[in-house]
Specification:
- The chain is α/β, with parallel strands linked by helices and 439 residues long.
- It is built from 13 helices and 19 strands.
- The strands form 5 sheets. Strands 2-1-3-4-5-6 form a 6-stranded parallel beta sheet, with helices on both faces.
- Helix 5 (111-120) links the parallel strand 5 and strand 6 (128-130).
- The protein binds 5'-deoxyadenosine and iron/sulfur cluster.
Length: 439
């Protein structure tokens, strides 16, 4: 028996793509293991959205060196976003001469073949690199997926991004928007429901522009309708939405649909119009607040989460105060907060940067504010009854799952209930998580 281990960094898209990497390796005859030391094939599925991610990955790749020294037959692959940056594959091969395979974001399905090619080689080992221009790649369908996500299944609806927010590296490493064929997407969702998955999460860098690259009249709202028509008891979530693109139709359909959750991740990034413009976000603070009102009017129980960045070049204390005021006004269920990190090749990296100490101080204030709001919103659930999809048993006799609105809830129960929908009375809240009992 031969084993592989995948270390995944970054977003949900990467988590799902690791399932495709695993699918390809299983097809090549390998089995998954959680132990890096026991693995014959060690894969790093990388992220480059911030410098912190990149540093951590470099550290983890470095840590493989002694393993490879002890057993030269091990195969090491570095794949995904990080490898697509200019000069990066050369830098990785130079810094880590023990790396065998470097593979970009686009043909993860080939990893099994590449591993076999290295494993079969006698004499000098080949160095394989398959990082190529991602500007117009075709969409590869029917690749094996080794799903590991339990009750939830991820489904890509599109790849890439056309937006070029000035801070963001994603359009450079993942290329232009490509929407999958709608019938294929709907068929995949139907198949997953038939297999027993209870929750589907639709994935795309910007799901609201689904279909823009197609000439057949499909858009995200139409895709939602088609998916909602599938029979069965299941939930659908999607990420990520863009405030400039989300349509009224999408909001209204979330409210009236059978299967779509009242839960949305809508990154705001900043509360100052000046900063939003410099970020090339193409919406205003006022439009964002309008969308929030619109979502809440359509779905009073909607859970709204966001991404916020501090320390974008030129952000003044006043701009930052605008962000704090927006956070106070909107009252997000939860916010993912980031310190702006300059990324090579992006427009903002060439702007005048603000000192790290200032960024650090600002994110501290933002986190303190959001924590108090997160707690306040959690407290509001105490005494209510929520329908929860049982997702996991983190400990014996303890279950957890999420509400329709996306809240994490813990409650006593046995693992054989995983995959069921149960009603849970909420007894207490602890910052982002809730605790209760099945009723
Ligand atoms: N620095 C810090 N955060 C970033 N993000 C994207 N690019 C950067 C960057 N250069 C954040 C955004 C995005 C989330 C996925 O990561 O908030 O929504
Ligand atoms: Fe990056 Fe903006 Fe595209 Fe999101 S929409 S991936 S932040 S460029």
């Amino acid at each position: 028996m031969k084993f592989f281990n995948i270390q995944t960094f970054g977003c949900q898209m990467n988590v799902h793509e690791s399932e495709k990497i695993a699918g390809s390796l299983v097809e090549a005859g390998y089995q998954p293991t959680d132990s890096v030391a026991d693995a014959d094939v060690i894969v790093f599925n990388t992220c480059c959205i911030r410098d912190t991610a990149e540093k951590r990955i470099m550290g983890n790749i470095g840590a493989v060196k002694p393993l490879k020294k002890a057993d030269r037959s091990k195969i090491v692959a570095v794949v995904g976003c990080m490898t697509q940056q200019d000069g990066m594959k050369e830098a990785i091969f130079k810094k880590f001469p023990f790396v065998d395979i470097i593979l970009g974001t686009d043909r993860l399905d080939r990893i099994g073949d590449y591993v076999e090619r290295v494993a079969m080689s006698n004499g000098k080992r080949p160095k394989i690199d398959d990082v190529h221009n991602i500007d117009t790649p075709e969409i590869i369908e029917n690749t094996p997926i080794f799903r590991t996500s339990g009750t939830n299944a991820w489904v890509n609806i599109m790849y890439g991004c056309n937006n070029f927010c000035t801070y963001c590296i994603v359009p450079y490493v993942r290329g232009r928007e490509r929407s999958r064929d709608p019938e294929t997407v709907v068929g995949e969702v139907r198949g997953l429901i038939e297999e027993g998955y209870r929750e589907i999460t639709l994935l795309g860098q910007n799901v609201d522009s689904y279909g823009n690259d197609r000439q057949d009249g499909w858009n995200f709202a139409k895709l939602m309708r088609a998916i909602d028509g599938i029979d069965g008891k299941f939930r659908v979530r999607f990420m990520t939405s863009h405030p400039k693109d989300i349509s009224e139709e999408v909001i209204d359909f979330m409210a009236e649909s059978v299967h779509f959750c009242h839960n949305i991740h809508l990154p705001v990034q900043a509360g100052s119009n000046r900063v939003l413009q410099a970020m090339n976000r193409k919406y205003t603070r006022e439009h964002y607040l309008y969308l929030i009102d619109r979502l809440r009017a359509a779905m009073p129980d909607v859970g709204i989460t966001t991404d916020i960045m501090v320390g974008f070049p030129g952000e003044t204390e006043e701009d930052f105060q605008d962000t704090l005021r927006l956070v106070e006004q909107v009252r997000f269920s939860n916010a993912f907060t980031f310190i702006y990190s300059p990324r090579n090749g992006t427009v903002a990296a060439k702007m005048e940067q603000i000192p790290y100490a200032v960024k650090k101080e600002r994110i501290g204030r933002l986190i303190t504010l959001q924590n108090s709001i997160t707690k306040e919103i959690s407290d509001r659930y105490v005494g209510t009854i929520l329908e929860i999809l049982v997702e996991d048993a983190p400990k014996p006799d303890l279950l957890c799952g999420r509400s329709d609105s996306g809240r994490l809830v813990n409650f006593p129960g046995s693992a054989d209930r995983i995959g069921e929908f149960v009603r849970v009375r909420i007894d207490k809240s602890r910052s982002a998580s809730l605790w209760g009992e099945i009723v």
